[in-house]
Amino acid sequence: MTTALITHPDALTHVTPPGHPERVARIEAVNEALTAPEFTFLIREAAPLADASQALNGHPQGYIDKLRAAVPVSGEVALDPDTWLSPGSWQAALRGLGGCLRAVDMVLGGEARNAFVAMRPPGHHAEARRAMGFCLLSNAAIAAKYALDHHGLARVAVMDFDVHHGNGTQDILWDEPRALFVSTHQMPLYPGTGAPDERGAHDNILNVPLPPHSDGARFRAEVERQVLPRLDGFAPDLLIVSAGFDAHRADPLAQLDLGAEDFAWVTERLCDIADAHCGGRVVSTLEGGYDLDALAASVAAHVKVLMERGA
Amino acid sequence: MTDKPVSEMSFEEAMAALEAAVTALERGDVPLEESITLSEQAATLKRHCEKKLKEAEEKVAQITLDGNGNPTGTTPVEGM
Description:
Number of strands of chain A: 10
Strand order of the largest sheet of chain B: 1-2
Coiled coil (chain B): 39-66
Helix content of chain B: 55-70%
Largest sheet of chain B: 2 strands, antiparallel
Number of domains of chain A: 1
Structural class of chain A: alpha/beta
Main location (chain B): cytoplasm
Strand content of chain B: 5-15%
Number of helices of chain B: 2
Distance between the termini of chain B: 31 Å
EC number (chain B): 3.1.11.6
Order of helices and strands of chain A: EHEHEEHEHEHEEHEHEH
CATH class of chain A: Alpha Beta
Strand order of the largest sheet of chain A: 2-1-5-10-9-6-7-8
Mean pLDDT of chain B: 82
Oligomer: heterodimer
Radius of gyration of chain A: 17 Å
CATH superfamily of chain A: Histone deacetylase domain
Low-confidence stretches of chain A: none
GO molecular function, one term (chain B): exodeoxyribonuclease VII activity
Mean pLDDT of chain A: 97
Number of domains of chain B: 1
Order of helices and strands of chain B: HHEE
Largest interface: A-B, 22 and 17 residues
Shape of chain B: rod-shaped
Low-confidence stretches of chain B: none
Largest sheet of chain A: 8 strands, parallel
Number of helices of chain A: 8
Structural class of chain B: alpha+beta
CATH topology of chain A: Arginase, Chain A
Organism (chain B): Rhodovulum steppense
Radius of gyration of chain B: 19 Å
């Protein structure tokens, strides 16, 4: 077994206006980084289209219908100042969700030890009834529900190290006692949620806010003090990672001072948890990361660790 | 926030602007793209407030007295 890389050219058909940070070039940078010789042995898999009904694991039918109806025939439309739709957005969103669900199937079915889904738009800000923060469908939360309901797992953990709080994932998993959601993020910063007292309906959410300019040492200390013991105690049957790389010091949208080596480190620690409790089963999905060079280097560092640990 | 440069704000003005910036960020009605700008403004305001506090602290001085109990001058308070 090894590591699966799941992507699809439809990730490039979700187009945002010129100057928007969540842009097509992000996926091009990720794809380019993953063509290096060290990534030869990834199992490369095309992200299938999810059926729209599979999004019902996270969103009500009314939301899905409205989102679909808002997709323009030409040009781009704004759902809010951040969140845009182009003609290809619905297809891209369904591929992103389909990629995450396929990753869960592959990892739980023994086709791969772990998987990375390189798709956009990202998902972790999309709440059950609201698209926001560049996000349309809440891929990580839906994947967690799918693993619980479709595959019958008892416990699924979602760890989100994107620099912004994963409010959408939190919203959807708030009342799900079989899921643990853990998020590290800068505070104050968009979207404003993610305070430590937001704990979920079943004490199933752990928020670890970090002040601006926290560096790798601070991040690692908080992960070791709070995140890892909590994940270890939960003993997940599957670990899903919302892998945003915008806590990188070069990122234009936030002020944390992490580097690619810190993303490699946290990936190692998360693989330790997965090794201890669930045979190393990790599904990671791309969230943010808006400096193209930092994104490419960070994704490469993350996937390299997944490959080493998945071998 | 007012258009007044942060460097010219009084402590009270800067604190009020800082509180407004942090409240807006915590309320979550700032778009993701603008969040960083507001966050940077908040950091500038925080530095300005800290500078103003330091200046005020330096002015708090111990009054020195002569043998008859009359004030003769000031010396800075230790540890401020």
